[in-house]
Amino acid sequence: MLTKRIIPCLDIKNGRTVKGINFVDLRDAGDPVELAEAYVSQGADELVFLDISATLETRGTLIDLVRRIAEVINIPFTVGGGVRTVDDARDLLTAGADKVAVNSSAILRPNLISEMAAQFGSQCVVVAMDIRLLGDKWMVFSRGGTQKTDLEARDWALEVEQRGAGEILLTSMDHDGTKSGFALDITRKISQAASIPVIASGGAGSKQHFLDLFNSDSADAALAASIFHFHEVAIPDLKSMLLANHIPVRV
């Protein structure tokens, strides 16, 4: 059985790690380089870096900060935010990223996914999906969660897989920062429909929430931010609890 991955997320704005609720009301969470180094020592399986204002500010990702983080970690490193072209992705990989996440640009031009996969391999391509429940449908949002699209979450997940994505980072905007638990139903539906790994994001508030996610066979990995940044849950303690409950994790 494949081990389940625990992934801290660094949401970056103005060079600092931030965290909010439902994508708003951001507060400072610390220096990203220091946090990255700490997460490696604590046993994080991977690290995700999302430059959350790059798309809205129409600029590229903070390459120098990516490079500084890459220098102090030795775990897989996914970077996203403001990636619009294959060259943007190449710059991030050259700076030390192992995978590149695309979101809004892939929605605007889905061929970007295929182009990146052809250039770097699907294993380097992560499609981030920000979703929200509207009525009885989970819809995809772009531009940092500010713009609704006409894409339904499950349909878009299947399309990005077909276009060559190697992984999906699925964030429920409704659950983001609420610490009420992951969006199990839609995560399970997408995980069962797609054959590529799904990272669940949004809603982690306790160790039990991770156990609920993995016991529901809803995702291959779980991403969280504030509970790790603010020392509410320690990664070693989380992994010990998961192992005690027969969830395979790397220690």
Short recap of the structure:
35% of the residues lie in helices and 28% in strands. The protein is built from ten helices and twelve strands. Strands 1-4-5-6-7-10-11-12 form an eight-stranded parallel barrel, surrounded by six helices.
Number of strands: 12
Instruction: Please state the overall shape, judged from the principal axes of the Cα atoms.
Output: globular
Count of discrete alpha- or pi-helical segments spanning 4 or more residues: 10
Radius of gyration: 16 Å
Q: Find the structural class using helix and strand composition.
A: alpha/beta
Instruction: Write down the secondary-structure element order.
Output: EEEHEHEHEHHEEEHEHEHEHH
Question: What name goes with the CATH superfamily?
Answer: Aldolase class I
Mean pLDDT: 91
CATH-assigned fold name: TIM Barrel
| CATH architecture label name | Alpha-Beta Barrel
> Which residues form runs of ≥5 with pLDDT under 50?
none
Q: In CATH's first tier, which class applies?
A: Alpha Beta
The structural domain count equals 1
Most strands sheet: 8 strands, parallel, barrel
Q: How is the largest sheet built, in terms of strand order? A: 1-4-5-6-7-10-11-12
Strand proportion, as a percent range, falls in: 25-35%
User: What helical percentage do the residues reach?
Assistant: 25-40%
Measure the end-to-end span.
Answer: 15 Å
Secondary-structure topology with pairs:
Elements: E1 5-13, E2 16-21, E3 24-30, H1 32-42, E4 47-51, H2 63-72, E5 77-80, H3 86-95, E6 99-102, H4 104-108, H5 111-120, E7 125-134, E8 137-142, E9 147-152, H6 153-162, E10 167-172, H7 184-193, E11 198-201, H8 207-215, E12 221-224, H9 226-229, H10 235-244
Helix pairs in contact: 1-2, 6-7
